[in-house]
Each structure stands twice: as structure tokens, then as C-alpha cells.
Predict the structure.
Amino acid sequence: MKFLRNLLASILGFFVALFLILMLFVFIATIAGSSKEVIVEPNSILNLDLSLKVKDYAPKEDNPLIEALEIEPSYLGLNTIIAAIENAKSDSRIKGISINTSTVNAGIAQVQAIRNKLKDFKESGKFIYAYNEFYDQKNYYLSSVADSVFLNPVGFIDFKGLSTEILYYKDFQDKFGVKLEVIRHGKYKSAVEPYLSNEMSEANKEQTISFLKSIWSEVIEGISENRSISEDQLNVIADKVEGRDAKLSLGNNLIDQVIYKDQYESKLASMIGEKPAHITIEDYIKSGKGRIRSSAKNKIAVIYAQGQILYGEGNEDVIGQDLINKAIRKARKDSNVKAIVLRVNSPGGSALASELIWRELHLAKKEKPLVVSMGNVAASGGYYIACNATKIIAEPTTITGSIGVFGLLPNATKLASKLGINAEQISTNNSPNYSLFEPMSKKFYEVTKDGVEKTYDLFVDRVSTGRGMPIEQVDKLAQGRVWTGKEAKENGLVDELGGLDKAVKIAAEIAGVEDYRIRNYPNYKKDIKESLKAFPFARLAKEEILKELLEEQEIEAYKNIREFKSLKGIQARMPFLYDIK
């Protein structure tokens, strides 16, 4: 009887599971069949809202479940935003662009690229208006490109210059008995400085103020050009915080008019002679305008390397040598691909993975032109994989350089002592070992330091060969020093200033092709588990828990320490702690 009961239960369970799977497919098919096509109405205004996170590359979701459920993405792709603005220039249904975004969730180099594309859009004769209740600096920098900028009567512009804050953990480590053992090369290698000291070194202060001033000069130069305010006057406005209310903002020519949102809508209607239809940048991209269509046979491959560099497979948020090298090989072996553009947006990471990617790029360069386009950051390991390109193109506000390496190991000797823990090691040989619960031995330090020095020498040699510079000159620019794209152009680490569009054009010129289309790589394949992370509740759960338990600065400290826990081996990585405000 027991056997029969178990048998019947198994059969029943099988049919129940089969029924549920069938219902799931019916549900998916129903939703997929009822999905609405995005239609761009005549007399439309393209609404540019950049509150979603902007990534350099936002590949199309290839999981049928997620596509059928029409789950909204949690980010926008810079590549699709730029293509959409380009398409809007010649789209007779789009009469103008309205910039109305509560925040700009993009890096400064990405903002500069979008801003430059908006300047190009204005050449079509179509208008750009901007409105907001308040503007932070990044938002105002973007919005200042508009023909007219409007502000709410009780609004303000947070215009006060750039700053950054770095947290230091030495006392924190001493207090809790857990620290990070650091072995480094490069006097500017400030990625690890917060774990060695309680205050910023003079070398770090020097590089930080240098790149902040360089980025700020780009910001006020752009604003000055569009608002007809001298750069000196903009600095006075920033020093005195004279955008702190609507009246001061208007008096200083930061805006054109103080109005409410409904009055702004009336102004948009007056620009086209009737009440306009509105379409968001996301919907415009969905309508098929997120890419430039071409039937050309020749292709320029754009390979996106975005995120920190870790040894392994990689994904769309992390650069792993397996995925990137596979994309490089596919582009190299495709006879229709005439040139390769590597788009780098990375603070670096694993020196080993960086070297493996460098090698694959080196092989590709022997067969096809290789051009690098730098995004928000292409530093340390990010510069390592870029340095051998035929040409390097960076935005003026790109953070690059940081040619230096370090090793990092957690150590809990003091905590173990406090808790009464004693660790004993037994080995068959006399080679130096490392224990989390024992002080680092001199022999282990010397062996690891030797590895760090050899990795640094190799890094400098790669740059020297790739850039055609003497070793001594590279070493002076290296030592972990961070540069902006503008500074890197002056010192020879970068060839030209510009965005991805310019890099693609240069690659095509070197390859000698005029008619071509873009082929983006890598192809990311996600399983159901990864794709379900797109659900809003899945994305927000961890963030909301952290916000409940910790203050904002504590959350940042937690993220930084957690990220360092994932680092293995010698690192070629920039100081990721900079949060420019």
C-alpha cells in the first residue's frame, strides 16, 4: 500500500508540474501576443529623461520570458541614446527635444558625449528646451546645451564647483582588528591608500585637484559657450553659490525664464503650433530608433569592455577574459569586419586577466586596425588593455592613466588574538605561506613584492611599446598617477579627444572603408535566474535593506570593502573611491 501511495503521489506531482508549465507558456504567449507596438505620433517631442542608469552598452534582452513579460530595463545604453538622437534629427515626426530629468544617472564623460550629440541635433534646425524644479551640476551641464533653459519659481541650481570625498579606514581596521595587507608599486596608487592611512597623501592631493580642475574646466567651457557667460564669471557664480534660487539664477543668465511646469508645456505647444505628442527616449529606442540601420556589407566591430576586470568568464557588468577574448576572436575572424573599436569603461582589476586580453588584442591588431574609445574611465587595467591600439580616443573628461599595480590580502591577526584564536600551519616545504590569522612574514612579503614589481615592469613595457615612448618617460607618467583625457592627450597617453563616433570614423578611415555598419560585441546570454534579476523587486530588495540598516556613507564603505573582497591576485586598478560631486 505504501508503494502504491508513493507511486500515485509521484504521478500526480508529474501531471501538476506539467499543467503549471503549460499554463506558464500559455501566459507568456498571451502577453507576447498582446504586446503593443510603439508608434511615434506626428508632431512629437522626444523627452530626454536620464534618471535610469546609463551604461555604455545595453544589449537587447535575449531571454524569451523577459521579452514576453515586457519587463522594463533598469538602465539605458549610451549607444542607443546616441543613435536615437541621431535618428531624431531626420525624423519628420520629431519636432524637438525636451530635457526634463530629476537626475542624470551617468558618468561625466557619458554626459559630455550626450551633450555633444545634442549640439549636433540642433544643427537640424529643431529646438531643444530644458525644464526642471532644480538642477544639480551634472543636470545643469547637460541642460545648458538647450536653446532655452527654464526653472521652477521655487527651484535652484546647485552650481558650486566639483568636489570629492574619500573615506579612510585605518582607525576602523585598528579598532576591529581586521586590516588589509598592501604591497604596491606607484606613489600615486591611491586605490589602497585608505587602508594604509587616516588622511590623504600629498601625492594623492596633487593628482586629485589636478583632474578635478581639468574636468571643471571642460564643464564651464561648455556652459560658457551655450549661455554666453565668461568662464571667469561662472567661477564667481560658483564661488558665491549664485544659483541658489530662481531669482539669482535668472539674474546671472543661468536660465532664460522662471515658470511652472504647465507654462513650460504651453511653450512646447507654441513651438510646433499645437499640443504636441510626447515620446520618452526609452519608447523611441523601442520603436527601432536605437540603432543606425545600414545594409552595408563591410562592418566595424565595436567591442564593449565595461566594469571591473576579473579573471574568468565575465558578463555585461564585469570584464572577464573569456567573454571579451571570444568577442575579439569572432571580430578578427569575420572577413566582413574591417576594423575593431574597443570601447573601454573600466577602472581596471586583475593584472592577469588584463594581460590575457592584451594578448588577444595584440593578435587582432596584426590583422586589422585597432582603435580604442575611452568612456568615463579607462584606467590602470583599463589602460593596460587599451595601450597597444593603433589610435586611442578619449573624452576630455575621461579618467585614465593610473599605471601602477598592487597586491591586497586581508589579515585578522589582532581580531584572532582578541577572540583567543591561535592558528598553526604545517607544510611539506619551506616556501612562504600566508595565513589570515598570522602576521605577514618577511619572506612572503619579499616574494609577493617581487611579483608586484615584475607586473609593474611588464605594464610599463606594454605602454612603452604601444605608445612608442621610452621606458623612462612612461615611468614618469606612471606610478599610479591618474589623468583626465585632456591631460593624457597633452602627455601622449592618448592620441585624440572625442567620443565613440569619432573612434569609429577613424577606424573606418584607417581600414579604407566608407560604406559600413556597426556590429556590437559581446553577445551576452543569460539564464532565467540572471534574467529574473530584472524584476523591480529583485533589484531593489538588497538596496532597500541596506538603506534601512545603514547610513549613506556606511553603505558606500560596505560596498567598497565588499568589492575588495572579490579581488584576487595582483591588481592593476585605479582609485575607485572617487565620487565627484
In short: The chain has a mean pLDDT of 86. The CA atoms of residues 46 and 97 lie 5 Å apart. The longest strand covers residues 148-157. The chain is about 45% helix and 20% strand.
